[in-house]
Amino acid sequence: MIKVLVDEGVAFDMLSILQVKSKKSQSIQSAHNYFNFAQEIKDQVGISKMSEILDSPEYKNLVTQNEEVFEAVDLAKIDAIPASLVDKLNYQRYLAKKEIQKKFFGDEISEQKIGY
């Protein structure tokens, strides 16, 4: 495995994705992935900051956005919804990720969305 530097908002987005996957699959491996990644983040930001973020409405919104994206992708696989809806939901997820970065870490996310 390799470790890479990412914005904190990106890390919490990745954590929320692992949380959604763990909930959807209910597999031991998915839960293991979530808890290992959560530990990596906690080791870097501290338990106080970690708890503050995980308990925040902003993080809960990020989880909800990721759940909606996952559901939309499943529907798009069978052409039940247009790809434009998946794109719109993914953009809302990006905005939620930006909000985590700005509120809890005081700066802008370095990720850039093209075409918006």
Account of the 3D structure:
The protein is mostly helical and 116 residues long. It contains 5 helices and no strands. It has helices at residues 8-25, 28-45, 47-54, 57-77, 83-105. Helix 2 (28-45) crosses helix 3 (47-54). The longest helix has 23 residues, at 83-105. The N and C termini lie far apart (34 Å). The mean pLDDT is 95.
Specify the biggest β-sheet. none
Q: Taking all residues together, what is the mean pLDDT?
A: 95
Rg from alpha-carbon coordinates: 15 Å
Order of helices and strands: HHHHH
Number of strands: 0
Instruction: Classify the beta-strand content into a percent band.
Output: under 5%
How many H/I helices? 5
Descriptive key words:
116 residues, mainly alpha, 5 helices, 76% helix
Please describe the topology of this protein.
Layout: H1 8-25, H2 28-45, H3 47-54, H4 57-77, H5 83-105
Helix pairs in contact: 1-2, 1-4, 1-5, 2-3, 4-5
Summarize this, please?
The chain has five helices and no strands. With 116 residues, the chain is mostly helical.
